[in-house]
Amino acid sequence: MKGIMVVGTASDVGKSIIATAICRALVEEGVRVAPFKSQNMSNNSYVTEDGKEIGRAQGVQAEAARIEATVYMNPILLKPTSDSTSEVVLFGKAGAIQSGRDYRTSFYEKGLEAITKALHKLENTYDVIVMEGAGSPVEMNLKTRELVNMKVAEMADVPVLLVADIDRGGVFASIVGTLSLLEENERSRVKGVIINKFRGDLSLFADGKKWIEDHCGIPVIGVMPYIHHHMIDAEDSLSIQVSKKNNPIDIAIFKPPYLSNFTDIDPFLHEGDVSFRWVNRIDEMGMPDAVILPGTKSTIDDWQYFCDRTLDKWLKHYIENGGRVIGICGGFQMLGRRLADPYGADTGIEGKEINGLGVIPAITTFITEKTTIQVEGTLHPKLKGSFVQSLKGYEIHLGETVVENHDRHYFMKKADGHYDGYTSNDGKIIGTYMHHVFHHDEWRAQWLNQIRADKGLPLRDPVYIRTKKDQKYAELAAHFKANVDFDLLKEIIGIEDRIL
């Protein structure tokens, strides 16, 4: 098949952003492109149109390629539930929670079958597959049964690009070390190097580029300048974006150890008068204009983490003094009265229970069957404003939450007639299972305008993110093509004769 595998010298060197750039750049050449990552590990997932779960990066790359994301673009997704266990999501459906050792010993053959099936499906539909590796391809303790780097390049029989991050230092050692640890047949697949996150005068790296090419015998096909505020959804928690500081609206976001779907927050990056802070200590809190409790893969453990740091007491006091709080998914569950895990679905411990904050009259029970659906519905009348009447997003959760007087205090009445979430009488406390609530531009503007009104700030019209995101994909592709030998890349892939 025609394609390219993007691997890195380490995690967070920019593999996802480079793969995204290649997807859009090739699409603009008239090529039908599909992204692919055989095995992903992330709690920041993406829900496809048919309600299945894949890694966020491949969802973003599909957007950049102007196609609908499918489970074949990420057949295996590992969602960490603790430091040593992960939920295994196969073709978008949640399966067992396994330790790393159990996964390596019992899942390998099944994983190879899934990867083969997915690659064949994509090959029959698209011209080029842009593949992404994970971490480093030379983690020697894991290499013999890996399912995501050079083994997959071999299965697909595609060339490989090696991405190195110069911003973290040690770029020469990381490139030489990676190449030296590859087997000869693997090394022969590496057809180019991209230096990523370069700061300063590019001409100053000319000698470095020549040294790499002379020493390694592989062309450096590009040196990518550092991209500030690219505003393209991240996947790895190492890449959580940070907003501008000192804007008039200050939002504090609780950061749990098992944070998931953190891109729910990214739209605030586009709001010119908003700053947000990730917090997990009392001394970081201050007096924000609003607090967001985001999603988590382990609600009970993460709520206990906040309680151990007395953030529960701070939050209760903040709410009693008129604070504005919204909990999304796991954050919604935490705001309730009680969290019960009778089957060990959330914690791995059957029968574990814990008190929530108690500001929402609700009890959450964790069950073994996960909900992964796209949802839409109509807001509670007290939340309707000049901009928005309805919302659309997605749910990914294990818990079932029963709210007292749901018909009077719901956040949204879903299209199927069921209720979602909770809204207090004054509208300042909100809980919802729906991810991407802030990606709904009109709703975000309405929620922010309530804060602006409280602070005496000018009200603002919605900022339309979808248009901005597509512009960012186009800018990323242009930036990429300006800083790499794009003709050489197409030659490496085998589409050098492609014309518009």
Strand content: 25-35%
Largest sheet: 6 strands, parallel
Q: Report low-confidence residues grouped into runs of 5 or more.
A: none
Structural class: alpha/beta
Number of strands: 26
Round the Cα radius of gyration to an integer and report it: 23 Å
Put simply, the count of helices is: 15
Distance from N terminus to C terminus (CA atoms, Å) equals 21 Å
Q: Look at the structure and give the mean pLDDT.
A: 91
Report helical residue fraction: 25-40%
Which secondary structure elements does this structure contain, and how are they paired or packed?
Layout: E1 3-8, H1 15-27, E2 33-36, E3 39-41, E4 45-47, E5 53-55, H2 56-64, E6 76-80, E7 85-90, E8 93-99, H3 100-106, H4 108-123, E9 128-132, H5 150-156, E10 160-165, H6 171-181, H7 184-187, E11 190-198, H8 206-216, E12 220-225, E13 249-254, E14 259-260, E15 274-279, E16 290-293, E17 295-296, H9 299-308, H10 311-320, E18 325-328, H11 330-334, E19 338-341, E20 352-355, E21 362-379, E22 390-403, H12 406-409, E23 412-414, E24 419-420, E25 422-423, E26 429-432, H13 441-455, H14 465-483, H15 486-493
Parallel strand pairs: 1-9, 1-10, 2-9, 3-6, 10-11, 11-12, 13-15, 13-16, 16-18, 18-26, 19-21
Antiparallel strand pairs: 4-5, 6-7, 7-8, 14-17, 19-20, 21-22, 21-23, 23-24, 25-26
Helix pairs in contact: 1-2, 1-14, 6-8
